[in-house]
Amino acid sequence: xxxxxxxxxxxxxxxxxxxxxxxxxxxxxxxxxxxxxxxxxxxxxxxxxxxxxxxxxxxxxxxxxxxxxxxxxxxxxxxxxxxxxxxxxxxxxxxxxxxxxxxxxxxxxxxxxxxxxxxxxxxxxxxxxxxxxxxxxxxxxxxxxxxxxxxxxxxxxxxxxxxxxx
Length: 166
Description:
Structural class: alpha+beta
Largest sheet: 4 strands, mixed
Helix content: 10-25%
CATH class: Alpha Beta
């Protein structure tokens, strides 16, 4: 079966199910030799989405979803802005069951910028993936400086709401 590795807001299983339907299972995974960045420019100036980039010795923790059907990854494409905002790559994700090749979205060239921060509501989705993360990694995510006080119209433009993720 195909797999999808989520390191950003899709670590929230409820968000994934709402977007692509049920999955067979979700388990903790690690993308080695990469680091998590908040440098993917959103549609709103100054606001970022998560991204990963190569980093010797780095590790990105996240949720590895086993899809029920190969076409489910195509259902995720519009939410990830593929192929304009993110590219899809097949990379090994390390799990307690060994390495599993999975789809990973990485920001497309020309879509990143410096000095960006995620919205607080976006970061809450990452934190909702706590079951897939080590305590230390979750704590580091909780310390990420986020933008507070966005209005409802801006949140909608970002695909977010004020409701706390499940």
